[in-house]
């Protein structure tokens, strides 16, 4: 899997979580790009707007607000999906309304299986839209 349909952007400021998620999704066959800041994430999307199938965003990072980053990513590519991950309640209703079926919330801490299931569900939805 090397196409945009299998590339995932992971954004988190916790290096251990970033590595764990990257390794796990890599083992599932996805190509993974990591960013330790919201600014780095947006730079990756700006450089290649159609390069990713999905973005996993830590909802409580400094820099660009998660809601704003997600909105930018969703606007950059009409097929990309977003997972907002947080240990705190996060209101993603506006994002869900703007991109029906392409935005999900994943509560932290999550297991690798929970992450894998959520990723597969969103990517399967994308493939149905082809």
Mean of all residue-level pLDDT scores? 92
Poorly predicted regions are: none
- Provide the structure class: alpha/beta
How many beta-strand runs? 5
Strand order in the sheet with the most strands: 2-1-3-4-5
Name the helicity range. Answer: 40-55%
Shape call: globular
Termini, distance in Å? 17 Å
Q: Order of helices and strands, N to C?
A: EHEHEHEHEH
Q: Give the radius of gyration.
A: 13 Å
Total number of helical segments?
5
Q: Please state roughly what percent of the residues sit in beta strands, choosing from under 5%, 5-15%, 15-25%, 25-35%, 35-45% or over 45%.
A: 15-25%
Biggest sheet features: 5 strands, parallel
Tell me about this structure.
The chain is of the alpha/beta class. It has helices spanning 15-27, 38-47, 66-76, 93-98, 112-128; strands at 7-11, 31-35, 54-58, 81-86, 103-107. Strands 2-1-3-4-5 form a five-stranded parallel sheet, with helices on both faces. It is globular. It starts with 6 loop residues before the first strand and ends with a helix. The mean pLDDT is 92.
How would the blueprint of this fold be written?
Blueprint: E1 7-11, H1 15-27, E2 31-35, H2 38-47, E3 54-58, H3 66-76, E4 81-86, H4 93-98, E5 103-107, H5 112-128
Parallel strand pairs: 1-2, 1-3, 3-4, 4-5
Task: Please tag this protein with its features.
single chain, 130 residues, alpha/beta, five-stranded parallel sheet, 5 strands
């Amino acid at each position: 899997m090397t196409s945009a349909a299998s590339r995932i952007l992971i954004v988190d400021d916790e290096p251990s979580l970033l590595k764990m998620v990257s390794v796990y999704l890599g083992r599932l066959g996805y190509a993974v790009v990591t960013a330790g800041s919201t600014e780095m994430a947006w730079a990756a999307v700006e450089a290649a707007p159609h390069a990713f199938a999905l973005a996993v965003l830590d909802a409580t990072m400094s820099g660009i607000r998660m809601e704003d980053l997600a909105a930018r990513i969703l606007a950059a590519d009409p097929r990309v999906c977003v997972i907002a991950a947080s240990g705190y309640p996060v209101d993603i209703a506006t994002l869900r309304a703007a991109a029906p079926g392409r935005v999900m919330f994943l509560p932290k801490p999550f297991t690798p299986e929970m992450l894998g299931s959520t990723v597969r569900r969103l990517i399967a939805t994308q493939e149905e839209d082809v």
